[in-house]
């Protein structure tokens, strides 16, 4: 049985040694369901595809150094058309995820479901030292629907919980990872057009100060782009908060892009209504242009103490990889492909 | 004029593949090609109501309502893809929404409501607005049971649709209500409610 001969060109940082894991061992067999044991064969779903062998070929990323560091892994669905590769990704999905993918009537949507779940699972696997099979992750939703990893109670990785968030556009799916900090990410195509007039959209959904700053831009294309930037930032905040669109309506907080201290957020008077006490301002933002084609906003919780107005929040450490899981990872941050806007 | 999406490549998502539509008003059309697919999942059965929270609840609207409607309409209930009926208890994550803002697809409490509670007129108007906003290609069916997520609507699309509906019906939609909308029918029901509240 030939296994997939995978071309691996990883230009990420070199592999780091990991401390050995202690496994609960009883009678020579490892009982922890998440740990791949060399003694026990992993049940194969299709001949020739060994999940264990495959995921072991995910290179280790550099570790997340601090709660202010965010790692983003993205893929481009349009470039992934190799059916055997797609089948391999589908192998990683849980039965319920696969049912959900099957329920998608449109092929493109189905492919997006498969890719986004595969991206999430492989990324999480990387950040748990590649010791957890991507297929083993389980997820739960908070009461507003935000997905989170359901860590097994005895797993040591639960001490430093990983947080993730996913965003899709037709042409790009991104997964952001942070450690010990809630994260939200949103991606949007730069050339995205709206059917409604920008200012009327802003008047309906944004805050007055944001409307004013948009109205000041005379060039309609620049105005549209500014709108999209604000949109992705606000969306990233809402997703990071994890309380749904109604938990933080866009009209209850303002995002300011052009301050000397980077991107700032402030609550509006709307937010002093009862029900919006949870809206907090201790969040860090970063906005970047990906491949000159997309805007990407990332929002993470800022747990540092220094949050006085005079203090300039330290920038978010952002690293971005373009990935074709199991095939190729390319570190794109620090190149032309990722241009930090703020 | 195709609307907002002219700059985007027309994706095959909106292509000629017939969507399996299960409109309660028109007789459901069973897509023959799909019905030939092997039923890998278990036979259709009415799902038991699952708890909305905490962990694995579905985010899809009550599809079994469609099952009921179809049987009432007297058509052959040999659904090619009963997956939707089974899905409701086993999902563990949220769907592939563009932008993924939980704007909709919140776990909707299981409604065993059989009838379309929205007026047909409203449903049709909503379909029109949705089709225009999403630049749905000619021939793609959009009806009451169509899910926004199935049409590939992302959060920006959704707010534009909501705004379009507000303008059309002269209503104001709160974010909490907007978030609960998963299908065209949900939107129409909400609109009817708001319109009648306005006039009463």
UniProtKB/TrEMBL annotation, chain A:
<dbReference type="GO" id="GO:0019878">
    <property type="term" value="P:lysine biosynthetic process via aminoadipic acid"/>
</dbReference>
<dbReference type="InterPro" id="IPR037143">
    <property type="entry name" value="4-PPantetheinyl_Trfase_dom_sf"/>
</dbReference>
<keyword id="KW-0808">Transferase</keyword>
<dbReference type="Pfam" id="PF01648">
    <property type="entry name" value="ACPS"/>
</dbReference>
<dbReference type="InterPro" id="IPR050559">
    <property type="entry name" value="P-Pant_transferase_sf"/>
</dbReference>
<feature type="domain" description="4'-phosphopantetheinyl transferase">
    <location>
        <begin position="183"/>
        <end position="269"/>
    </location>
</feature>
<dbReference type="GO" id="GO:0000287">
    <property type="term" value="F:magnesium ion binding"/>
</dbReference>
<protein>
    <recommendedName>
        <fullName>holo-[acyl-carrier-protein] synthase</fullName>
        <ecNumber>2.7.8.7</ecNumber>
    </recommendedName>
</protein>
<dbReference type="GO" id="GO:0005829">
    <property type="term" value="C:cytosol"/>
</dbReference>
<dbReference type="InterPro" id="IPR008278">
    <property type="entry name" value="4-PPantetheinyl_Trfase_dom"/>
</dbReference>
<dbReference type="GO" id="GO:0008897">
    <property type="term" value="F:holo-[acyl-carrier-protein] synthase activity"/>
</dbReference>
Automatic annotation (TrEMBL), chain B:
<keyword id="KW-0275">Fatty acid biosynthesis</keyword>
<dbReference type="InterPro" id="IPR044813">
    <property type="entry name" value="ACP_chloroplastic"/>
</dbReference>
<dbReference type="InterPro" id="IPR003231">
    <property type="entry name" value="ACP"/>
</dbReference>
<keyword id="KW-0150">Chloroplast</keyword>
<keyword id="KW-0276">Fatty acid metabolism</keyword>
<protein>
    <recommendedName>
        <fullName>Acyl carrier protein</fullName>
    </recommendedName>
</protein>
<keyword id="KW-0443">Lipid metabolism</keyword>
<feature type="region of interest" description="Disordered">
    <location>
        <begin position="1"/>
        <end position="55"/>
    </location>
</feature>
<keyword id="KW-0444">Lipid biosynthesis</keyword>
<keyword id="KW-0596">Phosphopantetheine</keyword>
<keyword id="KW-0809">Transit peptide</keyword>
<dbReference type="Pfam" id="PF00550">
    <property type="entry name" value="PP-binding"/>
</dbReference>
<dbReference type="GO" id="GO:0000036">
    <property type="term" value="F:acyl carrier activity"/>
</dbReference>
<keyword id="KW-0597">Phosphoprotein</keyword>
<dbReference type="InterPro" id="IPR036736">
    <property type="entry name" value="ACP-like_sf"/>
</dbReference>
<comment type="similarity">
    <text>Belongs to the acyl carrier protein (ACP) family.</text>
</comment>
<feature type="compositionally biased region" description="Pro residues">
    <location>
        <begin position="41"/>
        <end position="52"/>
    </location>
</feature>
<keyword id="KW-0934">Plastid</keyword>
<dbReference type="InterPro" id="IPR009081">
    <property type="entry name" value="PP-bd_ACP"/>
</dbReference>
<comment type="function">
    <text>Carrier of the growing fatty acid chain in fatty acid biosynthesis.</text>
</comment>
<feature type="domain" description="Carrier">
    <location>
        <begin position="120"/>
        <end position="195"/>
    </location>
</feature>
<dbReference type="GO" id="GO:0009507">
    <property type="term" value="C:chloroplast"/>
</dbReference>
